[in-house]
Give the backbone structure.
Amino acid sequence: MSVGLEANGMALPESWRTAIEKRVIAVVGGEVNGRRATAAMLASVLIYAATTRTSLFGTCESMAVADDNTLRDHLNRLAKGDEIWELTARINKQLLVDLPQVLLNERQEVAIDFHNMPYCGQHADLLPWVCRGEARAGTTRFIRIATLYVLRPGIRVTLAMTPATPAMAAPAVISTLVQTSRRAHVRINRLWLDRGFAAYEVVQRIKDLRLSAVIAWPVRGKTCGMRALCKGRKSYQTSHILGTHAGRFVPVQMAVVRGYTVRHDRPRKASWFLYAVVGRRLSLKSVHKLYRLRFGIESSYRQLNRHRPHTSSRNIAVRVLLIATTLLILNA
């Protein structure tokens, strides 16, 4: 029985397929004792669907295994929507299995980000999980996950993931993912976040977790606010006070970098880049240069979308399980 063709353009070795199959079975976390269907068959179908980016129906037709409706019934029985957090805990446990030793020996640069997957349905079971965002792929409604990713050249590893609801605030997501990595004894050197995390509450939560972080900060306003920091002709660092309407304040070191955008069809143009540096300080040159590493997490999302199986399931747990299968393959 074939369990998949390739991932990232490379054929999956037999030893990899066996290891991934064991992890998927552990994530499913239940018995499959059908007349034809077994847990190993279910794992093989999920892996094949991920590596070929097909649906369960197309996978079952190609592999000549049990009927897709039979396997779908087993999936809905084992992955229930009201047990989504237990499933997420099993997924994160398997993502952290057999980490490269270098990730445990040294402190790591990591990134956290949200990833939106377009959703065009209207089913009541999924509505609590539907988040709104900028229009993409013909919709403004998305199923959202958050991931914790290692920014290390040559090693593409997602350490943890969690589904996100519209009510989940960014500080809570950061706490959840960071605590998961700490339980696996992965030490974080610095956290890199994009502009979506630019808020007083996020800075305060990072300080509470005793972490260092760099947060890209949007330049808002015309003459006041953060725009007022963008002055002169040279980059510089300055102390800044972030506040809220409730009268809460937190000090932060702000790196104000004057850079240039270069495009082949336009002349070079000067631009301002703002970074909030929390915890240990960095030089201006290092902040702007190292922030480019954060785009590695965007690459992981492109890989995820390239291999994520097709589904129209109304069960959020099944959707998360299919995403987890792809992440386990990419980690391997």
User: Anything to note?
Assistant: The chain has eleven helices and eleven strands. The chain has a mean pLDDT of 87. The longest strand covers residues 249-263.
